[in-house]
Design brief:
By secondary structure, this protein is mainly α. It is built from 10 helices and no strands. 71% of the residues lie in helices and 0% in strands. The model has no long low-confidence stretch (mean pLDDT 84).
Length: 188
């Protein structure tokens, strides 16, 4: 079943399409959830929440790219669950990842919703400019680290690099992001 057919069936409210989404995309969205969460039970519960969120958001949304849309939904749900689980705790990989981005993104704090950034047109435009300035490998490292929550150790393994090299490339990318956000008037 194509992505367009899946979206059409969601618009027609055909429940069996959820089984198709799960079989086609569950590995993708559960991997995103696993990177954000430490508990397999939370991952399973959030995986079901992803399907429910897709059911409830399509319609009215009509995504151009279903894969990206599913990743975004999974990411939001994973972040929400992480925040719920760790309201008064600090120190897990997600917190470390947020602290890495603190200097690059305006007003970044655990209390600010992800949607506040994703729905901001100026930030979207600046991020598009930023992504175009990165070489392919750095772009993939950046996305896998900050969108899919992959650890630096895992990225080093995946790209056959030293952890320090990954960390340095990500640091340089974050500095470049900050400059672009400043130039675009998003970061003051």
């Amino acid at each position: 079943m194509t992505d367009r057919e899946i979206i059409t069936y969601l618009f027609e409210r055909r429940e069996y399409v959820l089984t198709e989404i799960a079989s086609k995309y569950s590995r993708l969205y559960t991997s995103i959830l696993r990177e954000a969460l430490n508990d397999e039970r939370d991952v399973e519960e959030c995986a079901n929440d992803v399907l429910m969120a897709l059911w409830n958001s399509i319609p009215p949304n009509d995504p151009r790219d279903l894969t990206s849309y599913i990743c975004s939904v999974a990411r939001r749900i994973g972040i929400d669950r992480y925040r719920y689980n760790t309201r008064d705790k600090r120190g897990n990989g997600y917190t470390v990842m947020l602290s890495e981005l603190e200097e690059s993104l305006p007003d970044l704090s655990p209390d600010v919703s992800v949607e506040a950034y994703e729905d901001n047109e100026a930030i979207k435009r600046a991020l598009e400019i930023f992504m175009k300035t990165l070489d392919t490998e750095t772009r993939v490292l950046f996305i896998r680290r900050y969108f899919y929550f992959e650890s630096i150790a895992s990225l080093a393994d995946r790209f056959n690099m030293k952890e320090n090299n990954v960390a340095v490339r990500l640091l340089r990318a974050r500095k470049k992001l900050k400059k672009i956000l400043e130039k675009e008037g998003v970061y003051v």
